[in-house]
From TrEMBL:
GO cellular component assignments: mitochondrion
Name of the featured protein: NADH-cytochrome b5 reductase
GO molecular function: cytochrome-b5 reductase activity, acting on NAD(P)H; cytochrome-b5 reductase activity, acting on NADH
Cofactor or coenzyme needed: FAD
Residue positions binding FAD: R198, P199, Y200, V215, K217, K223, M224, T266
EC assignment: 1.6.2.2
Source organism, top-level taxon: Eukaryota
Amino acid sequence: MHNSKSLFINISFTFISSWIQTGDRLIEPLFVWVYAFFVVGITMAFFASRTVRAGQLLGARLRAASPLTAAAAASASRVRDTAELAAAEAGPQQNKKEFAFAAITACVGAAAFFSAWGPGYSSQPVLLQEAPKGALDPNTWIHFKLEKIEQLSHNTKMLRFGFDDANAVSGLSVASCLLTRARIGNEGKDGKPNYVIRPYTPVTSPDVKGYFDLVVKIYPEGKMTQHMAKLGVGDTLEVKGPLPKIPYSPNMKRHIGMVAGGTGITPMFQVIDAILSNESDMTQISLVYANVSPDDILLKKTLDDLAASHPNFKVFYVVNNPTANWKGGVGFTTYDTIVKALPPPSDDTLILVCGPPGMMKAISGDKESPKNQGELTGLLKSAGYSEHQVFKF
């Protein structure tokens, strides 16, 4: 009986904890069945022990009533001896405790049964909510329909592409990008279509359902950007991904510095959004964002609003062609800008770099290939950073 009590207590604790955390209608019915039968079994065991005691009393009365009942009395005596041994070990107080224990188990068993099978019962348990599926596929080109076009500047657009499933997420992680593909120009000598493929980083959070947004700067000689500039609402674009870049986890570094140029802000924004939308992430962020003119600064209002509302985010703008009322940096990103605006070299800091080839060469040196970061050179090398403290998008 003692072992049964211990088992009952452990199972009851699990049941009640689940009941409190998930709600009485959300407990797996199979578990409730097992628990209810266990409780019934404990209760029946208690009444079986009571029956043994009743047999003891019956045997004594039969012996006193008549010699004709000797055989029955002998049988009852064997039952009595067993019951007396158990009663002597437990004592009268234990018998009272067993009765109370059986009563409680019966009540809890009834509540468990009613919880799972009473009014409002649903045969569909809701213990774990299935994670939304990702709309992207890293191995397959998928056509996504253009749903919205927003003009951000004289040469930059935000394009929103929708999913067939409005509840699907993109499947992107922080930080990762996707590939776009368009059939441009004539077929090659082998007769195969001539495709242009370019990577882009969506500026929407990976948790957003139903669509993703791309910020596209239209270059006069850019084959893909010219193609995307001509897309209209309802047209489609082939996309494949995601392509993981650098895996980010909350508080992985104390301070992250960023140097971005032009559309190089998009992977930075992905990381910035992940950090600032997580209240438990205490990472400090310092962004140096370089552009040709103030009108070329992408997502400026969003960045300014984030900096105003989050003390752990600082942004410093640099432009080549300032306006009369410009209050930020002027010219190119210099050694002094790097030293003043970014966190100093440390194993607890990380510098992210993304921008056009000329900027990459001056700041960090370009990558050798998509999978090879290449040698660290430029201003970051001069400022004392090491290769493991810098990541090039």
